[in-house]
Every structure is written in C-alpha cells, then in structure tokens.
Amino acid sequence: PLLVVILYKKPIIGVSIILGVVTSSSVAAASITASLNLGPTMLLGNEANYILLYRVPWIRIVAFLIGILGGWFYWTFGDNIITKIRTVNAMNRFKLAAPMWIVTV
After folding, report:
1. CA dist 79 → 20, 64, 71, 74, 87 (Å)
2. Which of 18, 45, 81, 84 would you call most buried, defined as having the most Cβ atoms within 10 angstroms of its Cβ?
C-alpha cells in the first residue's frame, strides 16, 4: 500500500523505487544463483535449491511489484491506449496482438 500511495502522489519517485527494488531483487537472485552454483530451474525436484532461493521474500517481490506497476499504468494511461487502439483497423490490431499472444503462450 505504501508504494501505491507514492505512485499516486509522486509517480516518478514511485516508478523509480519500484524499478530499483526490481533491479535489486534480480541482482540478489542472480548473485545467489551464481555463488551457490544453482541450476536454471527448480522444476527438477531439487528442494534445497527452492528453499535457498524462492522462500525469501526479496526474491518473490518482483511479481507483486510488476503487478502494482501494471495496474497503475493501466489506471493512468488505459483510456488513452484504448482510444488509440480503437482507431486502428482490425488487421493491424491482429498484427499487434499476435506477437504478444505468441510470447505469452
């Protein structure tokens, strides 16, 4: 909630804080992974790696911060984006949407 208030009152400072925390968390995850020589995935049943890396909150916070930032972005710019998209013809909308769909599959 504190970051949401900061985003509302001072957007530049809020976005800067969120990007700083996301960067710091990514560096922390990379450092832990490199220093302990962990594998690239936790899907192989290695419970020790999971406990070392993913149970600490500063590693998992990135997903929440991206969600907060995405919600703020849509709340701030969503109407403008929708208005601009409606002016684009259907074929160009498909050309814009298809790569995004492919990336998320």
Report:
1. 27, 23, 13, 8, 13
2. 18
User: For residue range 22-61, what is the model confidence (pLDDT) as tens digits?
Assistant: 999 989 888 888 887 776 666 666 666 667 777 778 788 9
Type of residue at 98: A
CA 100, CA 91: separation in Å to the nearest integer?
A: 15
pLDDT digits (tens, 9 = 90+) for 73-105: 888 988 888 888 788 888 888 888 888 778 776
pTM of the shown model? 0.70
d(CA 105, CA 103): 6
